[in-house]
What we know:
The chain is α+β, with helices and mostly antiparallel strands. It has a single domain, classed as 2-Layer Sandwich (Alpha-D-Glucose-1,6-Bisphosphate, Chain A, domain 4). It contains 7 helices and 7 strands; from the N terminus they run αβαβααααβββββα. The protein has helices at residues 2-25, 44-49, 73-76, 80-91, 96-106, 118-123, 203-224, and strands spanning 30-32, 56-66, 131-132, 136-141, 145-150, 162-173, 178-189. Strands 1-2-7-6-5-4-3 form a 7-stranded antiparallel sheet. The longest helix has 24 residues, at 2-25. It is globular and about 50 Å long. The relative contact order is 0.20.
Amino acid sequence: MGLASRLFKVSIAGTVASVGVFFGATRNDVFEPMDTTDPIFSSPFFKKYNPNRNPTLHDNCVRRVPLDQIQPSLLENKGKLVEAFCAGVWGGMGYIPQRAYLARKYRGPETANQLWDRKDLLDNSYEVGTIITDHFQVLEKTEDRIVVRCGDSPRITEVRPSDGLFEMGAVIKQEEGVAEFTLKSCFYQGLGKSDSDSGPMPAHIEWLHRQYTKLLMETAVLKKCVK
Length: 227
């Protein structure tokens, strides 16, 4: 019992330390208000894939980085910063577990033309139509944002039971001296009329989603955007 007790205490201490490291590392990733005036709700994709206007789980994670910490090459041409940020989201450390899970389930001859390997995810420019690990597909790309559809396989092109939009944004704000990175999520029940007014996820899953979003944000910025 003495050894087991010591091992238990060490395990708990390690867990607490890891949690502390996570929250310390993501302390600059903050969630800011996102209401129905956000352009994502007036996009043709939201209207098409949420035809019954079912309630949503939506949030906006923001990270601001001083421009002198950004790789200079990403500031020279419009659109390069958001491409690098998007590549960092999918090719960074934060997405590795989900990518591995999806690869075990869905990687094969039917999905061979999609992005799976980390090198390809880090090097891609994410043009419209690009499919990421049989779960995300690029719907829109501008100089400062890339929008993907999520919730199920892109091979299911019609309205889905579980659906959503995920937006990666990167804006250079010269007057403030920062690059502003955003990850916007908007999840909803696409097929049928929802019988809930509270959105598609329970509170504890929503909390976990936000922690995962912060992890994707931080690992993307560190991997592809800063010096």
